[in-house]
Amino acid sequence: MLDEPLIDIRNLRVEFDTNAGLVVGAEDVSYKIQPGETLCVVGESGSGKSVSALSMMRLVEFGGGRIAEGSMLFRIGDGQTLDLAKAEPEKMRAIRGNEIGMIFQEPMTSLNPVFTIGRQLTEGLKLHKKMSQKEANARAIELLRQVRIPEPESRMKQYPHELSGGMRQRVVIAMAMACEPRILICDEPTTALDVTIQAEILALIDRLKREHNTAVLFITHDMAVVAQMADRVVVMYRGNMVEEGSVEEIFENPKADYTKALLAAVPRLGEMKGKPAPEPMRIMGQETPDWTKKAPKAAPGELLLEVKNLTTRFPVKKGLMRRTVANVHAVEDVSFRLNAGETLSLVGESGCGKSSCGRSILRLVEPMSGEVRLGGTDIMALDQKGLLKARRDMQMVFQDPFASLNPQVRLMDQVSEPLRNYNIASGSELTDRVAQLFDRVHLPRSFMKRYPHELSGGQRQRIAIARALALNPKLIVADEAVSALDVSVQAQVLNLMMELQAELGIAMLFISHDMAVVERVSHQTAVMYLGRIVEIGPRAAIFEDPRHSYTQSLLSAVPIADPRQRKSERELNFKPIPSPIFPVGHEPGPSQYDEVSPGHFVLRS
Fold it and tell me: What does the record give under GO molecular function (predicted)?
């Protein structure tokens, strides 16, 4: 490693002009990154960790910000030093994507919805590397293969909306790596990814760093990812650096109180061993949430939801006549039961069918066949009028609250919408009901007049939960409801959901890829792979005695919040992901299970 840093940020101050006045996004931030080194910047959302990275690319200026003070000295290819804070726009265009690559957190906003994946991947290669279309196509296919996207040739012709969230994120990573940049900025690149894909992407970034001596600036709130990736760590809080040191120093001997609280709040796999019921998450700076002192544990009640042989397939259409040439087998012969007051967690990789399964149960996606019974009502047999009535008892909390809330409508009107739709309340009674819902999700009543953009991610997710609770449902399907939230906000939202479950006896189908969170909140756990449940049983059985090889690899891929227990690429033993697309007429056999212990079932291979 060279003594001279690749980038040297000194006393950086970034300001934003807002309606509420001047906001300082980063204040007096200084750090260096050497070639071949990974620097992790950690902190909660709003701590200013992304601001310093966006400043390095000079993208902060496109979001209403400005670099007020400081310098960012970047050693360019010919050995000269350039201050990025003062570089001309023309020079920055040549550096962005070529010398400095960036992986953004939200892939759907960083991919253009009207261009194919192939066009977006080849654009930078033709511009910066002066490749021909044929060379750029070959390189793009090779990049898609590197990020482990199945059938890369056919993916080149697809559009972003045709890929799952995890697939889109891998495309963004391939784009950032395309020109082999000297610095790779990763802004929460694995937040929305499941555990095995996350492990693969982290290994991929680490391999790129070693092979090309690339410097990596890794921004995250996940301390387990920091332990896996970092050489050095910078901890940020409210725009200021509170601590800097090697990864071992930060984890084993943290000096700042904020760093200690951040580490203490991390949910760790295996913490629930020997504990029969779900437990609340730890919140930063708070030992035990208040509600645990008064709320009883949710006792298993009577059978509420019964799913039998549920199958959902999506047609793949091609040609001028849009003829169906194949089917995506999203959900294949899925069966399970869920009692009132219990949580069943569905876990698996992106594209395994867990979200499709949740949507099929609510008939937001029409299943092809199977049975869904909610409290004795056959959901599959209902017409539109009957389904509308049944939906009072089943609600959904979506992954992205910003996408599921209307940006132009006040929060009070959004939470009251279900009550108005079913003519349950009006006038002052409606206002009172909404105020009570805001109290229930621990949000001030003054927020009722606000709009979604005026809230943080965690607060928006609480609004989505309040809206789901408005009709007093018996079942809530939570689809990755906390995956994009920081540790402390995630703990608050999960504790709220567990508190409401204990108080109201709600059954919850919790769809997630975060194994440590699933271990905390579940009564039952089901593992999905390629549309099928491969293992299902009580939480303790799945986590302490996993029998299916896929469950074992899923648990082994979970990063551990300890830099001395890093996992190598060899240990992770990645296998290619098979395609869920089959020709028309293909009928796979039924799912058959062996009961290996009471209530613990494993799919026969």
Answer: ATP binding; ATP hydrolysis activity
Q: How many domains does the chain have?
A: 1
Residue among 306, 99, 270, 65 nearest 184 (CA): 99
- The reply to whether 338 falls in a domain is no
Least Cα distance to 110 among 173, 50, 156, 60 occurs for 173
Contacts for 602 with CB less than 8 Å, ≥ 6 apart = 534, 535, 547, 548, 593, 594, 596
User: Which CA distances in Å does 213 have to 182, 216, 339, 439, 462?
Assistant: 8, 9, 53, 52, 43
Residue 162 belongs to domain spanning: 7-264
**Ordered alpha helix ranges (H), 61-164:** 89-95, 107-110, 117-128, 133-146, 152-155
Give the predicted TM-score (pTM) of the model.
0.80
> What is the rounded CA–CA span in Å between residue 35 and residue 229?
15
What's the Cα-to-Cα distance from 467 to each of 194, 406, 439, rounded to whole Å? 27, 12, 13
For residue 2, give the DSSP letter: -
More confident residue, 323 or 527: 527
| The pLDDT of residue 149 | 85
**Cβ pair 565, 548 in contact under 8 A:** no
CATH number at 257 reads 3.40.50.300
Domain presence at residue 357: no
| DSSP code string of 434-445 | HHHHHHHTT--G
Distance CA 425, CA 550 (A): 49
How many residues are recorded in the chain?
605
3-state secondary structure string across 120-137:
HHHHHHHHHCCCCHHHHH
